[in-house]
Amino acid sequence: MKNFSLIVLVILGLLTVSSVFVVNEMERGIVFQFSKIKRDSGGEVKIYEPGLHFKIPLIERVNKLDARIQTLDDRADRFVTAEKKDVLVDSYVKWRIVDFPTFYVRTSGGDLANAEALLKQKVNNGLRTEFGARTIKQIVSGDRDSLMEEAMLSAESSKAELGIEVIDVRVKRINLPDEVSESIYQRMRADRIAVAKEHRSKGREKAAVIEAEINKKIAVLLATAHKTSFEVRGSGDALAAKVYADSFNQDPEFYNFVRSLEAYEKSFSNKGDIMIVKPDSDFFHYLKDNKANR
User: Taking a C-beta distance cutoff of 8 angstroms, is the pair 95, 119 a contact?
Assistant: First the structure.
């Protein structure tokens, strides 16, 4: 009898333990009764909030769903822009479950991987539309905010279809495929080379103008200097001629004598010099005329 009572107590304890379940603060619970979602008296699906709850053992079972904000961050996807250029877009999505029954049914029992695949398809459809309406220049030059806003609006339908609320859609990085990058770099390089050639051409033109102006100034300065030197030399020659003329007028005979001596000195400065003249030549006037010498 005691053994039977002990067995009954054990069974009752097990039933009591199995009838209690706990939903923590990060989860929400859905109770199934004979494989059907349990509903309240109004016919609505009953969602169990965080806390201690009870269920009928062996008849009801609990399925718990994560109520936290989830992050969908998968590999980069390829999209086509308005000018038919491919871009690799790395994005992420912040989302959470708001309609637990719908989410459970639409995702085959609350499978997160299935939910993320469906959500990614929806978000990518929105991004594909937005990228297809913009050029690479528009995307890179700062049109990214409006692009993400439009993609988020297009993902709002997932709330009714999947029971998911999309909180944020962000584009982390936009890259070009290698083949597209190479063509763009080549075009950019060609543009920079053309600009460099234009700058060099303008520089050479300006240098030629500056050089011409400097040469002109040099020519003017040289001409002025030559003119001044000729004027000074002319003035000196005139003054020297005047001095010579004044001296000659004071004593013409002495002047002629001095000039003859200078001529003799220059003519016979080198011992190897030879001069053939007539003895009665005027060149030796002061050498043969004793009176003149006196």
Answer: yes
